[in-house]
């Protein structure tokens, strides 16, 4: 049986800038809460990531893809994209 709720695992772990690997939704939301300073918790990337993680935990497995993308965007919110 597949993991459900906050124990759902990402297909591929998310590697954070400090080298930590996030394997489950629970690890991702806990890391995001710890890594985002209070002054940045209202930033769209951070709130979207928290919302997508919650949807993935409470709803269908299909939300996992969006949750992964949102967490990656929140983790790298200060990086400048270069083309």
Biggest sheet strand order reads 1-2
Number of strands: 2
pLDDT below 50 for ≥5 consecutive residues: which ranges?
none
Q: Helix content range of the residues, please? A: 40-55%
The N- to C-terminal Cα distance equals: 42 Å
Task: Give the overall silhouette.
Answer: globular
- Rg for CA atoms: 12 Å
Mind describing the biggest β-sheet?
2 strands, antiparallel
Strand share of the residues?
A: 5-15%
H/E series, N to C? Answer: EEHHH
Number of helices: 3
Counting helices, strands and paired strands, the structural category is alpha+beta
Return the average pLDDT rounded to an integer.
Answer: 90
What does this structure look like?
The chain has helices spanning 25-35, 44-58, 63-75; strands at residues 9-15, 21-24. The longest helix is centred in the middle third of the chain and has 15 residues, at 44-58. Helix 1 (25-35) runs antiparallel to helix 2 (44-58) and helix 1 (25-35) runs parallel beside helix 3. With 83 residues, it is an alpha+beta fold. A hairpin with a 5-residue loop joins strand 1 and strand 2. A two-stranded antiparallel ribbon has the order 1-2. It contains three helices and two strands; from the N terminus they run ββααα. The model has no long low-confidence stretch (mean pLDDT 90).
